[in-house]
Design brief:
It is built from 7 helices and 5 strands; from the N terminus they run H-E-E-H-H-H-H-H-E-E-E-H. The chain has 230 residues and is mainly α.
Length: 230
Amino acid sequence: MIGPRVSFPPALDRYFTEILADVLNFSKRTILQAPGKEQRDDDRGRPVARQANISEPYTPLMVTGNLLALPYAQSMDEPSDAATIERAHSLANEAVHMVALQRRRLQSNEPEDETFIFRRWADFQFLIVSLRRLRLAARLAARSETNRAAIESAIREFDEALPELRKMRNVGEHIDEYAIEKGRDRSVSRLALQAGSFDNVALDWLGGRLDADEALIVAEAPHRAIKAVS
């Protein structure tokens, strides 16, 4: 059965097209076939992966009995500095909009508020992830020696304005380890994981404070720096 056609806004359509073109820029690919009687690895019927050389141009098709899968490159060269900067710019654009979205949600009333009193706590956790994603995009842009000084200066400004962000992100990312007192930062107790205070502007957690309004302003520094060199 063929599902409904999904339409994307032009900007997203171009974004996905560029990514797909990136992925398809290789001749060696792995095709994952659904298991037939003659293809079974064992009595569990696990699928078999086979290698194939597919000549260009390549158009992915849905074939009965096969899984539609993106090609897998067996070997690939590092992208050029220009391509890396463009990727960093795209990731930074995405991240700064994520930051703005979370800040907007923190200052608004949402349907979940009636049943989930910790909705803003959750949105602050997403804000932390979004800010760290932006920083990673900046680190990616700084791989280019030509632009490194300007980007690293913006990263330092970002870190100085949000000194507790790294700790909050690390604890959130490894919360399973901190829950059993195995986290790397020994100053963080398992009792602090869900202990904090918040309102529609700021989160106080792990001895630090994250202000959503300030975070949105600070996020512009690495974003501008990446945009300037892309």
